[in-house]
Specification:
With about 120 residues, the protein is α+β, with helices and mostly antiparallel strands. The protein contains 2 helices and 6 strands, in the order βββαβαββ. Strands 1-2-3-6-4-5 form a 6-stranded mixed sheet. Helix 1 runs parallel beside helix 2. The chain is globular. Belongs to the RutC family. InterPro entries: RidA_CS (IPR019897), RutC-like_sf (IPR035959), YjgF/YER057c/UK114 (IPR006175), YoaB-like (IPR035709). This is RidA family protein.
Length: about 120
Amino acid sequence: MSVTRIDPEHRMSEAVIHNDTVYYTSVPENLDDDAEAQTANALAVIDRLLTRVGSDKSRILDATIFLVDKADFAAMNRAWDAWVAPGNAPVRCTVQAGLMNPKYKVEIKIIAALNPA
């Protein structure tokens, strides 16, 4: 069983693939925007990574969303609902968390299956 590390660095890898499963955590790139825009951006980053490794959002099995301010829950859900693949919603939980970068409003961790070969 191989482990493939995508863009590995000393502290972390961009993503890890094991047993046709990809593990990835997305953070927003638009740090001056509101929670809805940051969520939409982080989800777009997930799309790019999944395409790169041979998967897509319909193959996401599990998502954990870390949200700094629970008052942003509805805004985050608007972005999520506009993005999630209809009929293919993963298991999901949302946790209120203090994130390391004070500009982050959201961080999203996913586990996804690769597309069949």
